[in-house]
What we know:
The chain is of the alpha/beta class. It has helices at residues 29-41, 49-62, 75-83, 101-108, 127-132, 153-163, 214-224, 232-236, 259-293, 328-338, 358-361, 381-390, 403-418, 420-429; strands spanning 66-70, 91-95, 112-116, 138-141, 166-170, 178-179, 182-183, 190-194, 207-211, 228-230, 245-247, 297-299, 306-308, 313-318, 391-395. Helix 3 (75-83) packs across helix 4 (101-108), helix 9 packs across helix 13 and helix 10 (328-338) packs across helix 13.
Amino acid sequence: xxxxxxxxxxxxxxxxxxxxxxxxxxxxxxxxxxxxxxxxxxxxxxxxxxxxxxxxxxxxxxxxxxxxxxxxxxxxxxxxxxxxxxxxxxxxxxxxxxxxxxxxxxxxxxxxxxxxxxxxxxxxxxxxxxxxxxxxxxxxxxxxxxxxxxxxxxxxxxxxxxxxxxxxxxxxxxxxxxxxxxxxxxxxxxxxxxxxxxxxxxxxxxxxxxxxxxxxxxxxxxxxxxxxxxxxxxxxxxxxxxxxxxxxxxxxxxxxxxxxxxxxxxxxxxxxxxxxxxxxxxxxxxxxxxxxxxxxxxxxxxxxxxxxxxxxxxxxxxxxxxxxxxxxxxxxxxxxxxxxxxxxxxxxxxxxxxxxxxxxxxxxxxxxxxxxxxxxxxxxxxxxxxxxxxxxxxxxxxxxxxxxxxxxxxxxxxxxxxxxxxxxxxxxxxx
Length: 431
């Protein structure tokens, strides 16, 4: 039976994708051995050998002077923003399409979050929208490298220089990406990473801040180490990953990462470069195949300044007009039934339930509500269009598949494209 005549899987037909989705996380015997060693050692936290080694290895990988391991990718953003000088009452510019924790981290330290529109092609922060949002209270910009794209860092860094702003990259989706010779996270004043379960470098939970600024390093370290930070001599020397500590005259928390997490991360880091290369090649293969088959779905156009694209997910765009008006939800449902496991994007940050609880449950009760953006009434046009109509993403696990697996994904997409009337009828019936 050909793709043109086969009944869609959403309508009871056979699935196009019969090979299994590549497993994630990938774990080898090295991690198993190291985890056993950690458990038997009794050294489970607080600057153990694996934490020290991982921080050195990840700083070297990213091309920065320092890396500080933390408990998760939300507190990394909190600490990075505080370390670059954000204080209560400052404004932090954040894109309106990102995981809500990017904004939450700024709100949790008393900053006022100003949400701005995105570039419709990359889904990342629009530099012109960011420029229009700058006020005398603006202290920092948070460019979020989202899904399978990177921000226009040339424009963001130029904007920051012009206005004297700090740049804290949210690189939770971009472990290993390279923009004009520099790794994602290493372009601004600090970079924030998440190692949560779904990320391409994972320890279940965890995070890191990278920087080459010794003062940012010392501040982040004290913030995660209950107010104890590296001495200036330690920051300047070779022992920065396991430094001598002193009271830092700064309020801090216990945001420490564990030895178990770092044992897992060291194994993942040893595979990251090769996995990034494979994902990048496979993403380009899928984008080219989509171009050849035509239809309502295409891949994001790649910025030539990106030398290596990392992928938390492959960013895709759907045009309902090319599908006879079939809503994105119906198209995505038909793809998923075929085994092409696409996701929709995050909801706009300003509609996230967590953000809209701050007016009555904020952990920073001294915030002046009159200064806050009207999140509930906010509508950013490019964010709205991407989140509600056009954008789909294919998670990174699919990009580790064999060419046979990728060809089955393409066959599933082609099958839906060739049977759009059937997909629409199923959607209208509620299938």
